[in-house]
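In this section we walk through a basic example: taking a raw amino acid sequence and producing a predicted 3D structure, encoded as discrete structure tokens. The instruction is simple. Fold the sequence below.
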Amino acid sequence: MTFDLPRRLTAEFLGTLLLVCTVVGSGIMAETLTEDVAVALLGNTIPTGAILIVLITILGPISGAHFNPAVTFAFLLRREISGTDAIAFMVAQVGGGILGTLIAHGMFALDLLQASTTIRTGGAQWFAEVVATFGLVGVILAGIRFKAEAVPMLVGLYITAAYWFTASTSFANPAVAISRAFTDTFSGIRPVDLPGFITAEFVGAAIAVAIFGWLLKQDTRKT
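The resulting token sequence is shown next.
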């Protein structure tokens, strides 16, 4: 099946909206229910991994389920999406993500418009975002290459793990990072800290395209 651009953009918009709504909403719920940061992070992690499996399964056949400008950028580098469509995807992702944050605030009776004051910066966190995004793009590319039907589960499990093995809790997504700057809750990030995170995420995606592009290429030489 093929879908026209408006439907693909709507899928990207809705997918990123629901992803961010889950990230922010589960963070608010976790912060409300416990003062233990480790428990709160776990309460934020599990819903995020779970919703990714659901969203990629139901929306992947429509748009490819990028929900992430870094992933779209990776496919642009691989010439699997046009520049015009890639820009449109990114706009839809960011717009959907911001609306997802506002919806989460509305569900918990918080001020809709907020600016985060949570400090997330420094070389270690930026490096963690390079690693997190590199791994995410690598999982997607290798998953598509070897077992496409497993990609929803692979991505959900990877992000669940990366929440805990990266210093940055694995944003790995510029649209999610931007959206989280609009919430002064558990999952927030100061707007001033966004450039470092976003740059690191695109760098990680580019490195993954280069390395996994080579790694997954079959040797067609005769032996």
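Looking at the output, two observations stand out. The first helix runs from residue 5 to 33. The chain has one domain: 5-215. In the next section we compare this with other chains.
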